[in-house]
Design a protein that fits this description.
With about 650 residues, this protein is of the alpha/beta class. It has 21 helices and 30 strands. The protein binds 5'-O-[(S)-ethoxy(hydroxy)phosphoryl]adenosine. 5'-O-[(S)-ethoxy(hydroxy)phosphoryl]adenosine binds near residues 325, 326 and 402.
C-alpha cells in the first residue's frame, strides 16, 4: 500500500444512461417494499436504508427468514468484530429446504441440472426431493462421525450433489470448505490441512469437453499427509475406474442408501460458522474467510430478491462455479432460501459449440441470467451469429460479476443476450462481503460499466488515504463504514491477518472502516466505477488468484531460484498470468523449460493459475528489504512509466525486464 497512492483520476466519463422500463419498475420487488414504506424515490429509499441500516436489516431478517428463536440484540459491533441477531437460533438449511419441502413449494423445482454430455438427460429436482437427498447425506455424514463444528471439504464439479453436500453440512452444523475443482491436489492439500477437515467429499471424475476426467486421484494425493481426514466420500459421476482405499473411501450412493430421509436441522446460534471459503490475498497463503448461519439466512436471499427481482415463476441461472463465493451465495443459499428454481450446468460454455449456453436458456426458459464479463467477452469474440440462432425471449433481466465490465462488452451483452432492451445488474462484491454491496436495482437508471450505487442497508464510500471522501472523478479506496449481516466474521485461525488486511488502514482515524482492497471512483451523479485491486491479487477470467501463490508454485520447481508474477491485460480474460523467472545456477534456459514451468504451475495450483508466458531474467527489481516490486516489473514489461525507483535496492534490474506487449 505504502508504495502506491490510493488516488487516481479518471479521464473518460460515461454519459449514456439506460433507464429501466416502466413495467420493470412498477412490478419490481423493491418497488413493492418502497410503496409499503411510503418511499417515492430510489434516492430517498437508498439514503434512509443506509442511515437506518440496523433497523433495515432487522426488518429484512424477519421478512426473509424463519428463526427457531428470536434475537435479543440486532447488532453487537465491537470493531472489527460484528455479531448480528445476537442470541437468535436458526439454520440456513432449514430456511433453504426444510420449510419449502413441508410447505407449498414441495413440488416446485429447486434445481434443473444440465449435464455436459449432450446424450445425458436434463434432471429436475423438486424441493421435496432435495430435502430428502440433503437429509440422507446429513445422516450419512453423522454416521461417519461428523459432528457440529467439524470441517468437511467439498471438492466437486458443478453437479447437484455439490449443493446437496453443502446444505447437508449446514444442516448438522458442520462447517463446509468448498475447494474449486479447478485447483490441483496442492491447492486442495493446503486447504484441507489448514481447515483440518474430517471428511472430504468428491467425485470419481467429471466431464469436460465431452471427456470423462478423473478427480479422485487429486484427493488421494492431497489427503496423503492430512491425518485429520478420516473418510473420503465419492460420488460416482463419470463412471471411471479410480484407486480405492477401502479403509477410508466410501461411495456416496452406498452411504446414502442406508440412511433415513428425515433429519432435523440443528438449532444453530446465528453466529455459528456456516462455512470457510479460502480466497487469495497478498501473500502466498490463502486466507480462510469465515461466514455464519444468521447472516447467510438473510443477505443472499434479500439481495437476490431485490437486485434480480426474483419472482415465483422465474428460472434463475447464475453461471458461477460453487467453488467461488458467487456459487455459494447465488447458486446455493440465496436462491434456495427464496425457494427459487435454479439452473446448474456442468460443463464448458462452448461445448459442443458456442451455442450451448443459448440452447440452455432457450430449452429451460431461463428468465434471469447472471454471468461474468470474461464469458461475455468470449461470446463477443465468437460472434453474434450464436445468440441469433436461439430464442432468448424468456430472458427478462441480466447480471454481471467478478471484474469490471467494459462498456463495449456491456452494450454487446445488452444487445445480444438482451435483445437491446434488458437491464444489466453489474454487482460489485467479494468473498469477504458474502453478498452484493454496490449494485443497481431494477429501478435504477444504468450507466454502462458502472455498478451504480451502494445497496440499501450499506454505507459504502470511496476515501483518500486520510479517510476523506474523494471528490467526483477522483479515485480512492472503496470502504464500508458500517457492518452488515453477511460480512465475513474472521479468518480461520488467523485473527492478526484479519485485522491487518481489512481494518488497519483507517484504524487510527476511523476504527471500524472496512477496506475492500479495490480502487474506485464516483462520477458527479454518484455512480461508482471499480478500477481494480490495490493489492497484488490477479483476476484471471474472474477468478481470484494471488501473484504470490503463483510465484511460490514456480519457486517450488527445482530449477527456479526466484519469480515475479504479473497480470497482463487481456481482451477476453481481463488479465492473464505472465511470469519472470530467475533460474538457479546451472539450469539452462530453453523454450522447453518455459513450457515445463507453466505446466508445473498447473500441476501445483491447477489450470486456473496457468502462466500464459514465462520470461527468463537475471534479476527482478526489489526493495531494500527484499520485497519484489511487481508494480515496477509490470510497468516496465507493459511499456508504462515505472515511476519513482528510489526505493529500489537494484534499479539496474528494471532495464533487464523485457517489453512483453
Ligand atoms: C472484483 C467475486 C468490478 C473486485 C464476487 C473484488 C468486481 C474482487 C466486480 C472479489 C464488479 C467483483 N465490478 N470488479 N461487478 N465484482 N469484482 O472474492 O476486484 O472472487 O475485490 O468475489 O472481484 O473477488 P471474489
Amino acid at each position: 500500500m505504502a508504495e502506491q497512492k490510493a488516488t487516481t483520476s479518471v479521464l473518460l466519463e460515461e454519459t449514456r444512461i439506460f433507464p429501466p422500463s416502466k413495467e420493470l419498475v412498477e412490478n419490481s420487488n423493491v418497488m413493492a417494499w418502497m410503496k409499503k414504506k411510503g418511499f417515492t424515490t430510489e434516492k430517498e429509499m437508498r439514503a434512509w436504508t443506509s442511515q437506518h441500516y440496523i433497523q433495515f436489516w432487522g426488518e429484512m431478517a424477519k421478512d426473509y427468514v424463519d428463526w427457531f428463536e428470536p434475537w435479543a440484540q440486532l447488532l453487537n459491533w465491537q470493531p472489527p468484530y460484528a455479531k448480528w441477531f445476537v442470541g437468535a437460533k436458526c439454520n440456513v438449511a432449514y430456511n433453504a429446504v426444510d420449510r419449502h419441502a413441508k410447505g407449498a413449494k414441495k413440488d416446485k423445482v429447486a434445481y434443473i441440472f444440465v449435464p455436459e454430455p449432450t446424450d445425458q438427460p436434463t434432471q429436475k429436482i423438486t424441493y421435496g426431493e432435495l430435502a430428502k437427498a440433503v437429509n440422507r447425506l446429513a445422516n450419512g455424514l453423522k454416521s461417519l462421525g461428523v459432528q457440529k463444528g467439524d470441517r468437511v471439504s467439498i471438492y466437486m464439479p458443478m453437479i447437484p450433489e455439490t449443493a446437496i453436500a453443502m446444505v447437508a453440512c449446514a444442516k448438522i452444523g458442520a462447517i463446509h470448505s468448498v475447494v474449486f475443482s479447478g485447483f490441483s491436489s496442492g491447492g486442495l492439500n493446503s486447504r484441507v490441512l489448514d481447515a483440518e477437515s474430517k471428511v472430504v467429499i468428491t467425485t470419481d471424475g467429471f466431464f469436460r469437453r465431452g471427456k470423462p476426467l478423473p478427480l479422485k486421484p487429486n484427493v488421494d494425493e492431497a489427503v496423503s499427509n492430512a491425518p485429520s481426514v478420516q473418510k473420503v466420500v465419492v460420488v460416482k459421476r463419470a463412471g471411471i475406474e479410480v484407486p480405492w482405499n477401502p479403509a477410508r473411501d466410501v461411495w456416496y450412493h452406498e452411504l446414502v442408501a442406508k440412511q433415513s430421509d428425515a433429519c432435523e436441522s440443528e438449532k444453530m446460534d446465528a453466529e455459528d460458522r456456516l462455512f470457510i471459503l479460502y480466497t487469495s490475498g497478498t501473500t502466498g497463503k490463502p486466507k480462510g474467510i469465515e461466514h455464519v448461519h444468521g447472516g447467510y439466512c438473510v443477505g443472499p436471499a434479500q439481495t437476490l430478491h431485490w437486485v434480480f427481482d426474483i419472482k415465483e415463476t422465474d428460472v434463475w441461472w447464475c453461471t458461477a462455479d460453487v467453488g467461488w463465493i458467487t456459487g455459494h451465495s447465488y447458486v446455493v443459499y440465496g436462491p434456495l432460501v427464496l425457494g427459487t428454481t435454479t439452473m446448474i450446468y456442468e460443463g464448458s460454455p462452448d461445448f459442443p459449440d458456442f451455442g450451448r449456453w443459448f440452447q440452455i436458456i432457450q430449452d429451460n426458459k431461463v428468465s434471469v441470467f447472471y454471468t461474468a464479463p470474461t464469458a461475455i467477452r468470449m461470446f463477443m469474440k465468437a460472434g453474434e451469429t450464436w445468440p441469433k440462432k436461439y430464442d432468448l425471449s424468456s430472458l427478462r433481466l441480466l447480471g454481471s460479476v467478478g471484474e469490471p465490465i467494459n462498456p463495449e462488452a456491456w452494450i454487446w451483452y445488452r444487445d445480444n443476450f438482451g435483445g437491446g432492451k434488458l437491464q444489466i445488474m453489474d454487482t460489485w462484491w467479494q468473498t469477504e462481503t458474502g453478498t452484493f454491496l454496490v449494485s443497481p436495482l431494477p429501478i435504477t437508471p444504468l450507466k454502462p460499466g458502472s455498478p451504480t450505487f451502494p445497496l440499501p442497508g450499506f454505507n459504502i464510500d470511496i476515501l483518500d488515504e486520510d479517510a476523506n471522501p474523494v471528490p467526483p472523478g477522483t479515485g480512492g479506496n472503496i470502504v464500508s463504514n458500517t457492518p452488515w449481516p453477511s460480512m465475513l466474521r474472521a479468518f480461520y485461525r488467523d485473527p492478526e491477518r484479519y485485522k491487518k488486511e481489512y481494518w488497519q488502514m483507517y484504524w487510527e482515524i476511523r476504527p471500524g472502516t472496512y477496506l475492500a482492497g479495490d480502487k474506485a471512483t464516483k462520477d458527479k451523479d454518484g455512480y461508482f466505477t471499480i478500477q481494480g485491486r490495490i493489492d497484488d491479487v490477479l483476476k484471471v477470467a474472474g477468478h481470484r488468484i494471488s501473484n504470490a501463490e503463483v510465484e511460490s508454485a514456480l519457486v517450488s520447481h527445482p530449477k527456479v531460484a526466484e519469480a515475479a508474477v504479473i497480470g497482463k491485460p487481456d481482451e477476453v480474460k481481463g488479465e492473464v498470468i505472465v511470469a519472470f523467472v530467475i533460474l538457479r545456477t546451472g539450469a539452462q534456459e530453453s523454450e522447453d523449460l518455459k513450457k515445463e514451468l507453466s505446466k508445473h504451475v498447473r500441476t501445483v495450483l491447477g489450470p486456473v493459475a496457468y502462466p500464459e508466458a514465462v520470461f527468463f531474467v537475471k534479476d527482478v527489481p526489489k526493495t531494500r528489504s527484499g520485497k519484489i516490486m511487481r508494480r515496477v516489473v509490470k510497468a516496465k514489461a507493459l511499456g508504462n512509466p515505472t515511476g519513482d525507483l528510489s526505493a529500489l535496492a537494484n534499479p539496474e534490474a528494471v532495464e533487464a525486464i523485457p517489453l512483453i506487449k
